[in-house]
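Note to self: the last two entries modelled the partners one at a time, which told us nothing about the interface. This time every component goes in together.
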Amino acid sequence: MAEFLRLAFAIAGKDIRLELRSRTALLSAIVFSALVLVVFNFARDPTAIAAVDLAPSVLWVTFAFGAVIALNRAFYVERENAALDGILLAPVPRSALYVGKLLANLAFVGVVEAVALPLFVLFFNVSIGHALPGILGVTALATIGFVSVGTIFSAMVVRTRFAELMLPVLLLPFMVPPLVGAVQVTSKLLAGRPLSEMVGWLRLLTLYDIGFVTLCILVFPAVVDE
Amino acid sequence: MTPELLAASRIVRRGQVLTILGLLAATAVYVIALCYTPMEMRQGLAQKIFYVHAPAAWGALVAFAVVGIVSILYLWLHDERLDLFAASSAEVGIAFSLVMLTTGPIWGKTVWGTWWTWDARLTLTLFLFFLFIGYLALRAAVQDRGERARFSAVVGIMGLVLVPFIHLSVYLFRTLHPQPVLLKPSAPSMPPEMLRALLSGMAAFTILYIGFVVLRYGLARLENLREGAGDAL
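The predicted structure of the combined assembly is written out below.
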């Protein structure tokens, strides 16, 4: 188990180092998320709908779009010079490769979200101070869910034509349960509702994470092995 | 004629026969629905679309379940025929979903007063439809046959797991859609004539589903042979 984690962290470390050195994809994803927030600001009528009613959906649509942009990158870097073949030749279990990629993507999407959240507070003037720990928790739960699915899909679509178009088409249906759950929990948190109203959604999010991370680890070899 | 070609053509012929049988059965269902079922008290004539809508939904769900199950079998056995069968089932499922998604709003507009509502079952089937559009789009975008089969099997399996999650997440909203009238613990809540028409509709669409899938599967086998022949030249 320690060996497995060491290998997974090695893969994740390699991806994160690579990204920190070039920074192009990360910066574009962050700028893209900021732009989505700005566009949303013009799409609402502040006199008709209170910011706090619209806020959860705006936040989560931004996170979702930012994540799709960020995930496109995950296996794209492995395509050049057949870098993936090199990793596959190394004595690394396929599951460790998947978990490593998942960790790197989580870090990557996490950074995008960490920048988008303060921007969101700034642009929409929503006070989230009292709900911040809860929002961070539900963000982690939902992000693990759709990034686990997105990681496996990005490994597939990179081998297709129109990769950047294929990923959202495949991934968005899978984003529905985590997004719906996250929007519901976020709006209840902002409204200061008791925890008992969110338990069902939190259970759903946890179940989704466990279910899809396990399933992805099981089917990932079918994606990379000839 | 090689044995494979003979086998594939035989499958196509069988599919044609089954499709014609299914179409005849569907016609019979229309006649039964229009002439031999009682008029629903509040919905009137609009309710007749039910005998097409519900069986089409049934066919679509069967088609998508088959994709998921056959995908699991593919990753286990790695038989190319299983992949072709799953793809055929997905295409037929999309056709049936389109019937369901067009008849539904027509009925909904008359009875609920709205074309569309974000109710649990409507949302679920809509996302199933999108999921399988994605499945077929992915197939079209992958060149290598082995890769295409493996990728689509993965999406098929993930789709099967996704269904209960979408269902759970949309079920928590209040639902406008009629509650189950057939598969529920108590006796079916409709007159026997209606029930008979519904069940025969489901039987007709099941035959139609099998016919379409067998036909499509046979054609896919033929396409594969042609591709193979092209490679050999």
